[in-house]
Design brief:
Shape: globular
Radius of gyration: 17 Å
Bound molecules: magnesium ion, zinc ion
Largest sheet: 7 strands, parallel
Structural class: alpha/beta
Order of helices and strands: HEHEHEHEEHHEHEH
Number of strands: 7
Helix content: 25-40%
Distance between the termini: 51 Å
Length: 223
Amino acid sequence: MKIKIVENVLRDNDAVARTNRERMIDAGLLALNITSAPGSGKTMLLEKTIDALAPEQRCAVLVGDLQTTRDAERLAAGAAEIAQINTGRGCHLSAAQVCEGLAGLKLERISFLFIENVGNMVCPAGFDLGEHLRVAMLSTPEGDDKVAKYPTLFQPADVILLNKIDLADILDFDIGRVRSDLERINTRAPLLEISAKSGAGLDAWIDWLKLCRENLTGSGKMD
Ligand code: MG
Ligand code: ZN
């Protein structure tokens, strides 16, 4: 019986996710679901990403957090629009929560929507939010074994970001191990080595984002 309940929850979630995706395609925006462990640098990545894309590209953020609005406050400076989703005890975002968040945004005026998922390497992977692309991020302090340990996070990713690359040597982080694990789990997604803090590698990430939006909408610019 329990298994059936879980199946129903996922089926309902997928239906809402499909509606979210259609709404966002109609509005001409590219939506990305950012997944990672807590502390790997999602919020700082978004701060730097929005800095690099604005003002030419209008960016909006949906921030999922258990309790606080701290991430939303950090991102409010650069983002054109921002909506906070407090998940309470929930350890992942659901499509229904994203649907509620979308209601507070002027979708037609947005080029990129970044959904910062709750920091968690397990269940966010199982919930389609209606995003167009999935981002999985790993940071070097978490250890070079995490791709093999949490394959469900990395399997559906369209791009994999390896953050805090500036600490790789200090931490004896073996990038080769990540690459060889990804050869078994996901050969489709590019692996981008970045440091959100120093800015290293961010150009390739920004280029990738712009290219993906061009592919979705047939134009790199909204207005
Ligand atoms: Mg954050
Ligand atoms: Zn969860």
